Structure formats: C-alpha cells, structure tokens
Amino acid sequence: MTRGEWGEAQAAAFLAQKGGRILARNYRTRFGELDIIAELSGVLLFVEVKTRKNDHFAVAREAVTSRKQQRLRITAELWLQEHSTPFQPRFDVIEVYGEPEQAVRIVHIENAF
C-alpha cells in the first residue's frame, strides 16, 4: 500500500467516524480523479486527500492548486451527471500527516474551494 492509499484509507475512516457514508473512492475520468465522494449531514462531499509525513516543509493543502481545483470541479460535474443526488455538493480537503504504525494527525478543511 502506498502512502497515498494509506492516507485515503485514514481519511475515509475519519469521515465514517464522523457519521459519513462513503459513496465512492478513486472515481476517475480523463479529466482527473476524486479521492473520496461521501455524504455527511446532508452534504455531498468531494474530498481531495493529501498525505504527508509531516508539515515541516509546507502544509499539504498547498498542493491543491487552482489547476487541480479546476480538474476536480470538472470531474465532480461528470459524477453528478451520472448520479442523481438531493444533496448540496461541497469540495473539502483532508490533510493526513503521519505514517503507518504511528500517530496520525488529520486536518479536515471544509468548503476548501
């Protein structure tokens, strides 16, 4: 399992612990990939997960550039065309800091962009 896969599993478990329901993971199109699609408290979350060992160099959210955000929006629009939902969509970023077998720190940035 790669660090990214491990981080996504940590983020999915975090959302589930908060009462979220995971609808899809790693939804891919030719425009991009959505790491996690979930429903939480009546909101449809499109979640970008960024995993780092630590934040000494920079916080993980800085890797979600405007270009990346645009690709995520297009991919989310395609998912919405394929899946009818009554929920309001929102884009979140979840930062996962740590490594397997160590303490994990998760930062959930709601409505990130």
Widest sheet: strand ordering:
1-2-3-4-5
Detail the poorly predicted runs. none
Structural class: alpha+beta
The number of helical elements comes to 2
Helix and strand pattern: HEEEHEE
The shape, in one word, is: globular
Explain what this protein looks like in three dimensions.
With 113 residues, the chain is an alpha+beta fold. Helix content is 28%, strand content 36%. It contains 2 helices and 5 strands. Strands 1-2-3-4-5 form a 5-stranded mixed beta sheet, sandwiched between helices. The longest helix has 17 residues. The protein is globular, with a radius of gyration of 14 Å. 24% of the residues are buried.
What topology does this entry show?
Blueprint: H1 3-17, E1 21-28, E2 33-40, E3 43-52, H2 66-82, E4 88-97, E5 105-109
Parallel strand pairs: 3-4
Antiparallel strand pairs: 1-2, 2-3, 4-5
